[in-house]
Amino acid sequence: MCIFCKIAAGEIPSDFLYESANVVAFKDLDPQAPTHVLVIPRAHYENAAELAAADSVTMSELFGAARRIASDFGLDGYRITFNTGASAGQSVFHAHLHLLGGRPFAWPPG
Ligand code: DGP
After folding, report:
1. 7 C-alpha to center of ligand 1: Å?
2. Cβ(31) to ligand 1 under 6 A?
3. Which of 36, 44, 94, 96 is catalytic?
4. The CATH number, out of the four listed (3.30.428.10, 1.10.357.10, 3.40.50.720, 3.90.25.10), of the domain defined by the range 3-101
5. What pLDDT is attached to residue 102?
6. For residue 53, how many other CB atoms are within 10 A of its CB?
7. 3-class DSSP state for residue 26?
8. For 38-90, how does the pLDDT look when each residue is reduced to its tens digit (9 = 90+)?
9. Where are the domains of the chain?
10. Cα(91)–Cα(84) distance, rounded to whole angstroms?
11. Which pTM value belongs to this model?
């Protein structure tokens, strides 16, 4: 079982900022901004593309959860990222949405 499957299943105790039948959200271990939350499907998909192809309802719920968490944190601007593939910086191969906020962000991203 991968690390995010274990978190979603409650095998690794975590504080969930959002939780439903299909999705959980929790703080990133290595935050890159004052607010850095990961929103993941409970079911295992290797990346966002695989999730989108297999379950567009859950994919949509990731965005809804991110919107709600951004509102809860009072973020007036935020960035949503899906690193998809090792060349794009993906290091955990269980689909996850990064919600980042609380500081200015540069464009283009590094
Ligand atoms: P990515 O590089 O896009 O695959 O992002 C993976 C993120 O997951 C990275 O920012 C660090 C975070 N992370 C890795 N392992 C854990 C963990 O066990 N707990 C939490 N909360 N975050 C983790």
Report:
1. 11
2. no
3. 96
4. 3.30.428.10
5. 98
6. 10
7. strand
8. 999 999 999 999 999 999 999 999 999 999 999 999 999 999 999 999 999 99
9. 3-101
10. 9
11. 0.98
